[in-house]
Amino acid sequence: MASPTLKYAYFPGCVAQGACRELYQSTAALTQALGIELIELKKAACCGSGTYKEDSQLLEDTVNARNIALAEELNLPLLTHCSTCQGVIGHVDERLKDSQQSNPAYIEQVNGLLKKEGCSPYQGNTEVKHLLWALVADYGLEELQNRVSRKLAGLKCAAFYGCYLLRAQTHIPYDDPLQPESMENVFRAVGATPVYYRGRTQCCGWPLSSYATTQSFKMAGLHIQEALDAGADCMVTPCPLCHLNLDSRQPEVEKTIGHKLGLPVLHLPQLISLALGISPKQLGLDRHIVSTHPVLEKLGF
Fold first, then answer.
1. Cβ 223 vs Cβ 202: under 8 Å
2. Phi and psi at residue 156, in whole multiples of 5°?
3. CB under 8 Å to 32, separation ≥6 — which residues?
4. CA distance 60 to 49
5. Are the C-beta atoms of residues 183 and 132 closer than 8 Å to each other?
6. 161 by DSSP, 3-state: which?
7. Which residues, other chains included, contact 277 with Cβ-Cβ below 8 Å and sequence gap of 6+?
8. Which of 44, 144, 252, 267 has the fewest Cβ atoms within 10 angstroms?
9. What DSSP state is assigned to residue 199?
10. Could you report the per-residue pLDDT of 55-99, keeping only the tens digit for each?
11. In terms of Cα–Cα distance, which of 259, 248, 152 is closest to 205?
């Protein structure tokens, strides 16, 4: 049974407030419909998406210790809807919690830098949690199913987990990092049919896109084609960076691989919100590069 007082310190990340604004919209629509309260961390900084540590591990740890400390000030878990943010911030949190026992001098160094900038210290007393985990573990699939007003019957959905959500942290208590089922279980809860294919837990290619564009697009094209071959009507991802490579760049991917794909790619909260009866316009489904009209037509919108 879901708690009517689920509350989180909300870390929306950069991409959802820019290139994937529809993710920001649909997360707000979904959580409001489910009665989940989000307190947005307006002072939070970009997690770095794994790039800070290329210059300095201390930089990545300090920036994200501050992000976590903002949630700790509210005595709330930090919630993100971005797999990359989950992977980076969650891994920092894991490393710093371990350092509290194994290397307390390092924690003192991090907190010393935070104090110098007038920031609250990292305490290690909260959790970093992706929206998917919050829905599965906190809200509950049974309760989610009870809230469905428009079953997504007949819609075949291919999950694209990507890599950060499943394997950036040492311990993920909510799913199997190699054979996950949480997204497929969400699909079933809202009446959709899960489609399985080989690439659903692999990298989308985004991290390569700035220096190995052809290889990046070939990776994305392979995953999309495998999902199509498995009969998918759409792909669903919990990561806006994956969405950029799979949806926004799909026309470029098609040119690279030499044939048409045309597979709609939805953000996870968009899919769930459709099952709650929220309008496609409110969810920003008109903002996608690959048209979502085939999905909406199949659902009778």
1. yes
2. -95, 115
3. none
4. 9
5. yes
6. coil
7. 149, 150
8. 252
9. G
10. 899 999 999 999 999 999 999 999 999 999 999 999 999 999 999
11. 248
